[in-house]
């Protein structure tokens, strides 16, 4: 990996690697190491105490649980959306295609306020759900709605180009060999999409874990019920408890890193299974 | 299993891909659908497979009309030009695919599948590659795997769409011979599409020549090569010299010159015709300075003599309109190399081209 092969046809190995490392350090590593550094001002027992209060633990569960759930829902519907956009032509397709990116462009606060207005008891959607005994706004489900919204583009945009490139011949070949439509989807198309699906899922999940702006407007922020971890960090900061805030941030960072590493591992495993690794 | 194609019509927008085509493919034959690109040959193959639906007409497999049967129930094996192998599966899994997707009730056991796959891989001489992925194989190997995969479901018909089109010349030739041998062993009714006349002539039992959505001629390779039925077939199959002229007495008047031809009487005098002759059906006569006889052959200049192998290829040109240097007509004559040396033919020499055999077609409109 770190060998600079003189016979390599790719130029600029030293330059590009150096640039990558410096850039990554300035943009990512330095801010993150500040988090670690600040946390070390706490003794180990007080660190553990800070990150294991019931309120913090409940927030971890909520943040990661909802992010995972939102990621999974986006995985399914993102694939569906990408499928419809690639495989079919319909009126207004370009508009739909452009709409997909909107959650990226909208300020998250606007998203949160809009969703809260829609799903509250007298909002357009909330009004319909209220008689059924379903409350979305100001409950954990409100968080889920917001996280689904902001994570929507990831899976669609990662899957779309791969789906476009799948040759129709592959499915024709599967059909000529007697496969049903479902079989050619699950055995031929899905394995090809798997890396893109995993990437899209990882991105949507990571974004959802760190989301703050849109969630706090719709969550209600009730401690132990609908209080997300980023909000606890902000609250600690407002109380000038910097070490406490960074301690929670550090735990969040580690869990996120582990989960993303796990997804990467899954990627590598599936690559090996399907011959995508280079020998 | 025999295949009957009945009045198939297919259009794409304003383009007619197949114009009321009817054909019979007898059981056990290897038939080539030959034609230039855009002639409808691939469309016909895809319609037989069920990958495309015709606007009208029917496909009959073994006396059963399968026009409405979806491809997965037609039991046809289809081989694609670009292999269409499943990249995420090993060679073994690719070949086993057709067996794995069978409903549980008719699916063979794991051991049976494994046996069968290895047998098929041995048949295509690639069993040693069974745990590789398609990306690790050469083009020729990929196509053989694709063929093994198609054969795994024991199709009654094998359809190959330009199977060797993406391969280089040497591998193509090898695979051609190999396909012929395989067909002689299996005797499965096979149709393959190609635009390569050499491939069709070498491999097929019968050749179906297509042009612009119509069938021009059907016959054995000998028949279509020696007795082309239409000007198109003549021009498409093999090297050929083309002459534009008018019937005049016992010959064809071409510019100032005349090619003698015995059968021209069947065509009315003065009719404009096109005539074809293969390079080996032409001969060269050295001009006798004294008798400047225009009735004997076309005067032309030798541009190049290519002597490779036992025969020499002689390229000649003649001005088709007297006095006009820009409109030159090119001819090719094939002579034994010894003849070229004996007659002392040289580049730049002015000679006459005469024809030992000439096939003449009447032309409805003069197109010069």
Low-confidence stretches of chain B: none
Per DSSP, the total helix count of chain B is 9
Principal-axes shape call of chain A? globular
Structural class of chain A: mainly alpha
What brief labels describe this structure?
heterodimer; A: 279 residues; mainly alpha; 2 domains; 13 helices; 76% helix; globular; B: 368 residues; alpha+beta; five-stranded antiparallel sheet; 9 helices
What does this structure look like?
The complex is a heterodimer of chains A (279) and B (368). By secondary structure, chain A is mostly helical. Chain A folds into 2 domains: 1-39, no CATH class; 43-278, MetI-like fold (Orthogonal Bundle). Chain A is 76% helix and 0% strand. The mean pLDDT of chain A is 89. Chain B contains 9 helices and 20 strands. Chain B has helices spanning 41-49, 91-100, 110-123, 139-152, 169-186, 197-203, 221-226, 231-236, 337-342; strands at 3-12, 15-25, 30-34, 56-61, 64-65, 76-79, 157-161, 189-194, 206-211, 214-219, 241-248, 251-254, 257-260, 272-277, 282-286, 298-307, 311-319, 328-336, 350-355, 359-362. Chain B has a 6-stranded mixed sheet, with helices on both faces. A 5-stranded antiparallel sheet of chain B has the order 13-12-11-14-20. A 5-stranded antiparallel sheet of chain B has the order 15-19-16-17-18. The radius of gyration of chain B is 26 Å and the shape is elongated. The two termini of chain B are 47 Å apart.
Describe, in short, the structure shown.
The complex is a heterodimer of chains A (279) and B (368). Chain A contains 13 helices and no strands.
Chart the SSEs and their pairings:
The complex is a heterodimer of chains A (about 280) and B (about 375).
Chain A: H1 13-39, H2 44-51, H3 54-87, H4 93-100, H5 102-105, H6 108-119, H7 124-129, H8 140-165, H9 168-176, H10 181-210, H11 213-219, H12 229-238, H13 242-273
Chain B: E1 3-12, E2 15-25, E3 30-34, H1 41-49, E4 56-61, E5 64-65, E6 76-79, H2 91-100, H3 110-123, H4 139-152, E7 157-161, H5 169-186, E8 189-194, H6 197-203, E9 206-211, E10 214-219, H7 221-226, H8 231-236, E11 241-248, E12 251-254, E13 257-260, E14 272-277, E15 282-286, E16 298-307, E17 311-319, E18 328-336, H9 337-342, E19 350-355, E20 359-362
């Amino acid at each position: 990996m770190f060998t600079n092969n003189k016979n390599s046809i790719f130029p600029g190995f030293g330059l590009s690697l150096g640039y990558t490392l410096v850039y990554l350090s300035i943009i990512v590593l330095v801010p993150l190491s500040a988090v670690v550094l600040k946390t070390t001002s706490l003794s180990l027992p007080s660190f553990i105490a800070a990150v294991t209060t019931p309120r913090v633990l409940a927030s971890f569960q909520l943040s990661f649980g909802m992010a995972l759930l939102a990621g999974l829902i986006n995985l399914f519907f993102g694939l569906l959306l990408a499928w419809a956009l690639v495989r079919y032509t319909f009126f207004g397709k370009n508009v739909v295609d452009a709409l997909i990116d909107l959650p990226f462009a909208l300020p998250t606060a606007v998203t949160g306020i809009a969703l809260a207005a829609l799903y509250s008891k007298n909002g357009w959607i909330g009004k319909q759900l209220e008689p059924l005994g379903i409350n979305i706004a100001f409950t954990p489900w409100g968080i889920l709605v917001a996280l689904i919204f902001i994570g929507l583009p990831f899976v669609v945009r990662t899957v779309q180009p791969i789906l476009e490139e799948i040759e129709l011949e592959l499915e024709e070949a599967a059909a000529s060999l007697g496969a049903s439509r479902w079989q050619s989807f699950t055995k031929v198309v899905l394995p090809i999409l798997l890396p893109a699906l995993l990437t899209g899922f990882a991105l949507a999940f990571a974004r959802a874990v760190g989301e703050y702006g849109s969630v706090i407007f719709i969550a209600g922020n009730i401690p132990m019920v609908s209080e997300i971890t980023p909000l606890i960090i902000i609250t600690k900061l407002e109380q000038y408890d910097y070490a406490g805030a960074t301690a929670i941030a550090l735990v969040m960072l580690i869990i996120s890193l582990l989960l993303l590493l796990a997804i990467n591992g899954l990627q590598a495993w599936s690559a090996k299974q399907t011959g995508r690794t280079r020998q | 299993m025999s295949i009957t194609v009945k009045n198939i019509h297919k259009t794409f927008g304003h383009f007619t891909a197949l114009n009321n085509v009817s054909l019979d493919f007898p059981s056990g034959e290897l038939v080539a659908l030959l034609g230039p690109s855009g002639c409808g040959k691939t469309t016909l193959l895809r319609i037989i497979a069920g990958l495309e639906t015709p606007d009208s007409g029917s496909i009959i497999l073994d006396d059963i009309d399968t026009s409405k049967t979806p491809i997965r129930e037609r039991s046809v094996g289809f081989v694609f030009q670009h292999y269409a192998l499943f990249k995420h599966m090993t060679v073994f899994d690719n070949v086993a695919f057709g067996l794995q997707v069978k409903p549980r009730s008719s699916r063979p056991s794991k051991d049976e599948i494994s046996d069968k796959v290895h047998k098929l891989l041995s048949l295509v001489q690639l069993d040693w590659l069974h745990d590789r992925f398609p990306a690790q194989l050469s083009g020729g190997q990929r196509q053989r795997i694709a063929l093994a995969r198609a054969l795994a479901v024991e199709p009654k018909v094998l359809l190959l769409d330009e199977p060797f089109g993406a391969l280089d010349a040497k591998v193509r030739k090898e695979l051609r011979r190999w396909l012929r041998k395989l067909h002689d062993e299996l005797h499965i009714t096979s149709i393959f599409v190609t635009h390569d006349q050499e491939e069709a002539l070498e491999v097929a039992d019968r050749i179906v020549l297509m042009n612009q959505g119509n069938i021009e001629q059907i016959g054995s390779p000998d028949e279509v090569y020696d007795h082309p039925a239409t000007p198109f077939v003549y021009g498409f199959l093999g090297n050929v010299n083309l002459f534009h002229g008018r019937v005049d007495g016992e010959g064809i008047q071409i510019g100032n010159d005349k090619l003698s031809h015995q059968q021209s009487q069947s065509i009315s005098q003065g009719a404009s015709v096109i005539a074809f002759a293969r390079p080996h059906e032409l001969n060269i006569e050295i001009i006798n300075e004294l008798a400047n006889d225009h009735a004997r052959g076309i005067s032309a200049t030798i541009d190049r003599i290519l002597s490779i192998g036992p025969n020499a290829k002689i390229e000649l040109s003649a001005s088709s309109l007297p006095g006009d240097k820009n409109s030159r007509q090119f001819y090719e004559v094939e002579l034994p190399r010894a003849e070229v040396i004996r007659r002392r033919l040289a580049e730049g020499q002015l000679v006459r081209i005469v024809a030992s055999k000439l096939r003449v077609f009447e032309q409805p409109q003069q197109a010069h």
